[in-house]
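Predict structure. Chain length: 226.
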Amino acid sequence: MKRTFAAVVLYLFAASASAAGLADITNKDAVSGLRQALTDGAAAAVGKLGVENGFFGNARVKIPLPESLQKVEGLMRAMGMKRQADELELAMNRAAETAVAEATPLLVDAVKQMSVRDAKGILTGGETSATDYFRRTTADALGRKFLPVVKKATAKVGLAEKYNSIAGKGAQLGLVNADQATIEQYVTKKSLDGLYTIIADEEKALRQDPVGAASSIVQKVFGALR
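Prediction complete.
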């Protein structure tokens, strides 16, 4: 991913070495190159998460029990329900890993739909401007895609069904947040958060440490574009 993005930026520099602003960064080839870089970055994030232990084995994105269950987790374990709690937590993370593995097509489609204006914003924006673009253009569609996958993966866990019954009533009374009204909604949201977290990591690393000898000239390009 780093090499691809660095190559794009070098191309932009070569194509507009005498340019002072954004007006010159509009050619089709440059946008096409950026699209490829973003596609590679999204695929890298999905590749890290959409595998066994992609979520469960990564402390930064591991999905904990919902807050309402965390409050009684100690009591559950004291009552001999440790196995059920552990089983639900593992099932939630396995569900996220399964769901995120299917994210690539929608992320790729978002890249294909990227406009020249979007490309400029990504190149000249903050350290997570590409991630922000992905979140803005894919969150709703990915949520709809993830939900049935998550539901299928957690349906066999008895505690999930019990939680849904209790939390659903709690949500109606305003005692439980709407996004935690069911295990499926909760895991879907956490799956999306985890995905965008890792995409952001990829983007930050890319911006902060361009490849090898290209580093100084890349910094010049971004400085000029800003």
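Summary: Residues 129-154 form the longest helix (26 residues).
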